[in-house]
Amino acid sequence: MKIINSWNLIPGASTNEFDTMANKILSHLHKGADLEKIQNIIASDLVAVYGFYRHEIDTRSSAQEIIDWWIAL
C-alpha cells in the first residue's frame, strides 16, 4: 500500500517492508473495519513488530488517511 510507504517510517526500508501490515489492514477494510480498528492494527504492528513506541506514531491520522483512501475507491 503506497500510503504506508509514503509515511517513511523506516528510512531506506524495502518497499515491501510493510506488506504484512498492509494486507492485514486491507483484509479488515474488506470486512467493514472502522477507524478504531484500523488504528489498533497500525499501533499493534508498529509497536510489536517494528519496535516503535506508541507516542512516536499518530495512529489516528494514519488510520484516517487509509479510511479516506478506501472510501474514495
Description:
- With 73 residues, the chain is mainly alpha-helical.
- It has one domain (19-72).
- It contains 4 helices and no strands.
- It has helices spanning 2-6, 19-30, 35-48, 59-72.
- α2 runs antiparallel to α3 and α3 (35-48) packs across α4 (59-72).
- It is globular, with a radius of gyration of 11 Å.
- The protein starts with a helix and ends with a helix.
Quaternary form: single chain
Largest sheet: none
Percent strand: under 5%
Number of domains: 1
What general outline do the C-alpha atoms trace? globular
Helix content: 55-70%
Question: What is the H/E order?
Answer: HHHH
Number of strands: 0
User: Rounded to an integer, what's the Rg over CA atoms?
Assistant: 11 Å
Count the DSSP helices: 4
Distance between the termini: 13 Å
Uncertain regions spanning at least 5 consecutive residues: none
Overall SS class: mainly alpha
Mean pLDDT, as a whole number? 96
Features:
62% helix; single chain; mainly alpha; 73 residues; 4 helices
